[in-house]
Amino acid sequence: MKLTDNVLRSFRVAKVFRENSDKINCFDFSPNGETVISSSDDDSIVLYDCQEGNLGIESQPSGSLRAYRLASLPR
């Protein structure tokens, strides 16, 4: 599918993620497409269940964390 302006305008928001309280700097899907992970300038990493649209795991470290690139590795 070519992402033309008309195609992009036809997209609808399926889910708004509000768990990160600062700018999200990385957002990626797992290899099987069932999970989404985000990292944010609020030092959190959040995993979401794509099938249900629910929060999976939220990690708030006690120290500073900066993740600008996330990678999913096959098992």
TrEMBL record:
Subcellular location, record wording: Nucleus
Assigned keywords, A-Z: Nucleus, Repeat, WD repeat
Repeat found in the keyword field: yes
Entry-linked InterPro entries: Swd2/WDR82, WD40/YVTN_repeat-like_dom_sf, WD40_repeat_dom_sf, WD40_rpt
A Gene Ontology term for the protein's cellular component: nucleus
GO biological process: RNA metabolic process
Each WD repeat, start to end: 17-49
Annotated family: Belongs to the WD repeat SWD2 family.
PANTHER family for this protein: WD REPEAT-CONTAINING PROTEIN 82, WD40 REPEAT PROTEIN SWD2
Protein name: WD repeat domain 82
Encoding gene (name): WDR82
